[in-house]
Amino acid sequence: MKKTYLLLSLIIVLLFYLIACKKNNNNTSDNISTAIVPSTCDSSALINDPLSVFWIQRVIAGDDCPLYRGASLTTCIYQGRLVVYLQNFASSLGICTTTLYSCKGEVLLRGLYADYADSQNQYSNKKTFWTK
Question: Which residues constitute the domain of residue 109?
Answer without folding.
Answer: 2-131
